[in-house]
Amino acid sequence: MRMKWPAASDSASNSDACARSSRTLRLGRVSENDQVTKQRTLGAGVYGRIGLHFYDAGVLGISSMLIWRCSSTRTLAHYQANVSANHLDVGVGTGYFLDRVTYPSTTPRLGLLDLNGNSLTHTARRLIRYSPEIYQADILQPIAVGAEPFDSIGLNYLLHCLPGPMASKAVVFDNLGPLLKPGGTIFGGTALRHGVRLPLQARAFMGVYNAMGIFGNSNDSLAGLRSELESRFDDVSIEVHGCVALFRARARP
Fold it and tell me: Which residues pair with 248 in a beta bridge?
């Protein structure tokens, strides 16, 4: 089903162009509680059209390397090792890694899922050559977008932006379960506050970001992440670089 792109901060012409460039736009359940509303307001600045223009250099370049101490080169290698030709990316940002990775097929099926319409529009336009499927949904709620399951799902730099302790935000793994094939791979990266080496500059920035509501990882720990993954998946693997945990796991049959 093809639907007109819902106008966010983009013009109607840009919205229509994005809708024409993609296979589908399906709206999942989008919650309107106070926390999500707050995140949307904050995201308008970080993931607005101007913010997205500087995201690659500022967040994936300077912040990743100098603050979190996990380079984009290392994260790209993590993507390359785990992405499939039937991939869904959740919390798409700018599509930086999706644009640079080499897929197992020249015609991959690529899905984009995010709550933020600006990010979806920007990333879909960047990846127009793959005719991505577009899904706008709140991953903290059950997802009903009617999509066929994927062989891999990526969640990069997403978990640390979600509110609450790891035990509650890990509901995203449950909500994404129906979209991952048995034996499929789920992978990503997240900045942790506990159980990792936290550089002084990372400690300072995390404090500010959590106070502002941009991050929600004050209580996120390596042990907590591992526990939530191992309770749901097989073959869990976590590599720590700086204060970032690069994880991957396999869906149970």
Answer: 187, 237
| Residue 153 confidence (pLDDT) | 98
In 3D space, the residue among 108, 153, 155 whose CA is nearest the CA of residue 132 turns out to be: 108
Q: Which pair of tokens denotes residue 108? A: 């991959």
Q: What is the CATH number of domain 34-110+149-251?
A: 3.40.50.150
With a cut of 50, which residues of the chain have pLDDT below it?
A: 1-23, 30-32, 36, 39-41, 43-45
Give the residue among 143, 141, 140, 147 at the shortest CA–CA distance from 22: 147
Most distant CA atoms of the chain, gap in Å: 49
The structural domains of the chain, with segments of one domain joined by +, span 34-110+149-251
Cα–Cα distance, 159 to 65 (Å, whole number): 19
* Burial group, residue 126, by CB count within 10 angstroms (0-12, 13-18, 19+): middle
Q: What is the pLDDT of residues 56-102, one digit of tens each?
A: 555 665 677 667 878 889 999 999 999 999 999 999 988 999 999 99
